[in-house]
Design a protein that fits this description.
By secondary structure, the protein is α/β, with parallel strands linked by helices. The chain has 17 helices and 13 strands. The chain binds pyridoxal-5'-phosphate (PLP). Pyridoxal-5'-phosphate (PLP) binds near residues 121, 196 and 281.
């Protein structure tokens, strides 16, 4: 094992994170290779800096005028578009994101957590967490309605066992008892869980009381001596449409909840800043017992993962986000407009679904946030309904694991939403009544 990895492992050995490390996680480190040497040269090589594979003239990268001319004159310098970004991401972006995390999650104020690392979208963040902290055969707890990519990442890439529990409890809210039982049933000393709110595919976020009960339940498992890694997938963070919905990420509570809890937050500019194609996400760590040295070691291991997967992330995307967050004339206004548009669509869909409340052929899952709502097809084939809707009505929806039909109402104009819901019910009636 590389000596640098050994040093990081030694630093982490008295932290909760250590026992979660996979074999890859243990081997990982940030090499003192080209990147580190060229960083050193940036400071000292005043005469000739022949370190990086990036073609420059007078200190600026070469570029094609046909590309640069597409940016507004004077807006971004060539280096802000064409250079490599640092491996962990643009420093200004990282601290802006950290500040915005505290603004959006006031409970984080004063808590110790890592400076977010920039990832190539949230998928990349989750995938790296899986490679670093989950090994083949480990249990990963997850509610049974989840983003399908978790399967590919945790089950197929890593070879972990998905320990699913029913998403909704008997009262129609989040199944906290089921979650707790699943955590307790994980074999051995360690348990891992991924929670995603607002949820894809259901559109559900816990109420404030439920959020507190979720944290209390995980803490009660931690008190039994089990060590728990809680991954908060906050892809749709902020899209909360009801008053009593929890408005903070669970990460804000788990960050200092218990020494046995290792809190991981994956979030992204993708949906929060409406830059789906930019591929800019973030990865942040916290635990009650973490020291600065633990956080530094975890950051270095993650930098190693970034280095060996994508090396570094999208430069123009990061510069554009920094510029909007720092100096954007319409930044807050546009975000507010888009939020109200999504809320409006949510309300239309709610009403449209309500009209069909006596039609038990499909049951909408409780939803209050995000981009989606989903129907329970009661064991009938959601794939059959999906293809029927497509072929007969030219309506595209998603079949989730054969028994759930998901509607992404975020991508349909408000005028069409009632008809969309009516058509789904009509088609289900034609098929199954
Ligand atoms: C629940 C959830 N997590 C993560 C992601 C991935 O986000 P990104 O596009 O930033 O990789 C998505 C995207 O659809 C998602 O729905």
């Amino acid at each position: 094992m590389n000596i640098l990895a050994e040093e990081l492992n030694k630093t982490l050995s008295d932290s909760v994170a250590y026992g979660f490390l996979s074999a890859v996680g243990r081997r990982m480190y940030f090499p003192k290779g080209i990147v580190a040497q060229s960083d050193e040269a940036k400071e000292k090589a005043k005469k000739y800096n022949a370190t990086v594979g990036l073609a420059t003239r007078n200190g600026e990268p070469f570029y094609l005028r046909d590309i640069y001319s597409l940016f507004k004159e004077g807006s971004l310098k060539p280096a802000q578009i064409f250079s490599y970004a640092p491996g962990g991401g643009d420093k200004t972006l990282r601290s802006l994101w950290k500040d915005s995390m505290i603004e959006k999650n006031p409970s984080l104020k004063g808590k110790r957590f890592s400076l977010p690392l920039v990832t190539g979208g949230l998928t990349h963040a989750i995938s790296m967490v899986a490679e670093l902290f989950v090994s083949e055969g480990d249990d990963i707890v997850c509610p049974d309605l989840f983003w399908d990519n978790y399967d590919l990442i945790f089950t197929d890439l890593i070879g972990a066992n998905a320990r699913l529990f029913p998403f909704y409890g008997e009262n129609g809210g989040f199944n906290i008892e089921g979650m707790k039982a699943a955590l307790l049933s994980c074999k051995g000393e360690y348990a891992r869980i991924i929670l995603n709110f607002p949820n894809n595919p259901t559109g559900y976020t816990p109420s404030k009381d439920e959020a507190k009960a979720i944290v209390d339940a995980v803490v009660s498992v931690a008190e039994t001596g089990k060590k728990i890694m809680v991954i908060s997938d906050d892809a749709y963070f902020g899209l909360f449409f009801e008053d009593d919905t929890e408005k903070e990420s669970l990460f804000a509570y788990f960050a200092d909840a218990h020494e046995n809890i290792f809190a991981v937050k994956g979030d992204a500019a993708t949906k929060e800043e409406m830059v789906w194609g930019f591929r800019v996400g973030f990865l942040t760590y916290a635990s009650k017992g973490f020291t600065d040295a633990h956080i530094d070691a975890l950051t270095k291991k993650t930098l190693g993962m970034i280095r060996c997967s994508v090396s570094n992330c999208d430069r123009p995307g990061q510069s554009l986000i920094v510029s909007a967050m720092q100096d954007g004339e319409h930044y807050r206004e546009d975000k507010a407009i888009i939020f109200s548009e999504m809320k409006k669509r949510y309300e239309i869909v709610h009403k449209a679904v309500e009209k069909h409340k006596n039609d038990d052929i499909l049951t909408p899952y409780s939803f209050n946030s995000g981009y989606f709502m989903a129907f329970d097809t009661h064991g009938r084939s959601a794939e059959e309904l999906r293809t029927y809707l497509l072929d007969k009505y030219q309506v595209g929806v998603i079949n989730i694991m054969g028994k759930t039909l998901r509607l992404a109402y975020c991508s349909v104009e408000p005028e069409g939403l009632e008809e969309l819901v009516d058509t789904v019910y009509k088609a289900a009636g034609e098929l199954w009544n």
